[in-house]
Amino acid sequence: MKIYNTMSRQKEDFIPLESGKIRMYACGPTVYNYFHIGNARAFLFFDVVRRYFLWCGYDVTYVQNITDIDDKIIAQANDEKLPFTAIAEKYSQAFLEDSSRLGVLPPDFQPRATEVMAEIIAFIHELEKKGYAYEAEGDVYFSTQALESYGSLSGKKVDEQMVGARVLENLNKRHPADFTLWKASKPGEPVWDSPWGKGRPGWHTECVVMSRRYLGETFDIHGGGIDLIFPHHENELAQAQAMTGKPLANYWMHNGFLNIDGEKMSKSLKNFFTARDILDQYDAEVLRLFFLSKHYRSPIDFDRELVEEASRALKNFYSALKEMEPQKLMAEGLELIPEAKQSFIQALEDDFNTAKAIAILFDLASLAKKQDHNLEDRQWAAYTLFQLGKVLGFFANYDKKQDSRLSGLSAGLVELILSYRKQAREQKDWAHSDRIRDDLKALGIEIKDTKDGCQWQIKE
Ligand code: AMP
Ligand code: ZN
């Protein structure tokens, strides 16, 4: 397996730290608004990475954080005249709902920054003791000059950052490249007690602490969009390196942008479409196909024509599946067409070339529908299409519709339990609602919150 590592700017052989195990972390959203389809590209891509590794038989631990304390959340709270916790809760729920509608599997761990505050404070304190952090008027900064390797991920050197820094935007900083670990709070802002007074953490510290908590000091893959390389990931890495002298992750993967009219889709440019709006217009799998038809590191323009094309292609896949009876299609463990399977694996093992993998699915769909072909081969193609498509997260709806593993009584009981969960959610009793979700999951029933209500399916 080859993975393009942003650290070395080249494709490298992928060797997990521990044989058979993969530990990966991808930066999640800052919950101050509904996420847009540019963010969706990142969430979907890392979902596919994880699904592929699972299919290969790895024991994968996937962590995606939720940034629930940040300047932008505070600004939005002021705009909406709500406490910051209400904003964070509202958009965290929206994030979970929209991710689920997108068909993104829930991560193994989804920590929120505010849940790890004690660890964040202890971490900063430790950096200070080691001489990598200094306090000034209740703020704490990371001293980039103290870390020789600073800049190794992005290639930006500390001195380069002096160029153009005519005025230090913050006179408390010893160097313009130094970044905030802890911010003294301004009146009216949320606060936590710390050795430096009341304040709150910086974003870069939140992520590094959350990743360490679940994945240890060094893990396999750290991911996000290319906008996160600098400063976010550089600064996460700097803190880890200062703390342990070791890399934070062995492979850094970054997806390219979703653009609109050649410009990055972003909230600040206001040129975005929210995922929930787009999901009202297109099936989630259409969006998945649209993104995966391009290599993850290439930019993609949000072109409606191409989305329509993806929609037609997806219909074609589904119609190819009709060549085989549902129960046979869903049977597990049968042999796949060896050449197709091998090419599919080769494509994904070459730095996740999903565009090639999708082309293989196209070929299989054509084969399945080739009327002058013998039925057995056409059905084999349909079976292979279904099984390989599922690896990339397709055909979820098909599975569910055909599922006959539950008797009417059991299905009724699941619905009944879900109605209790709905009540809990209406009363904002998230703890109860999450417990029902987790308990059902433990029984093998996975649920998704969608605009049309809660949907459920039996896990593979
Ligand atoms: P944010 O909530 O802005 O921190 O973004 C969440 C994730 O979406 C990060 O991995 C970003 O790098 C990624 N992201 C943001 N905008 C885009 C875009 N236009 N295209 C692709 N990925 C993006
Ligand atoms: Zn992060």
Q: How do the helices and strands line up, and which of them pair or pack?
A:
Layout: E1 2-5, E2 10-13, E3 21-26, H1 37-55, E4 59-64, H2 71-80, H3 84-101, H4 117-129, E5 133-136, E6 139-142, E7 179-184, E8 199-201, H5 203-215, E9 219-225, H6 229-244, E10 249-255, E11 258-260, E12 263-264, H7 275-281, H8 284-292, E13 300-301, H9 304-321, H10 326-329, H11 338-349, H12 354-368, H13 375-391, H14 396-402, H15 408-426, H16 430-442, E14 445-450, E15 453-458
Parallel strand pairs: 3-4, 3-9, 9-10, 11-13
Antiparallel strand pairs: 1-2, 5-6, 6-7, 7-8, 11-12, 14-15
The structure holds adenosine monophosphate (AMP) and zinc ion.
Adenosine monophosphate is lined by residues 27, 29-30, 38-39, 41-42, 224-225, 227-228, 255, 257-258, 264-266.
Explain the overall architecture.
The protein has 460 residues and is an alpha/beta fold. It folds into three domains: 263 residues, Rossmann fold, CATH 3.40.50; 95 residues, Up-down Bundle (Four Helix Bundle (Hemerythrin (Met), subunit A)), CATH 1.20.120; 53 residues, no CATH class. It has 16 helices and 15 strands. A four-stranded parallel sheet has the order 4-3-9-10, sandwiched between helices. The longest helix has 19 residues. The chain starts with a strand and ends with a strand.
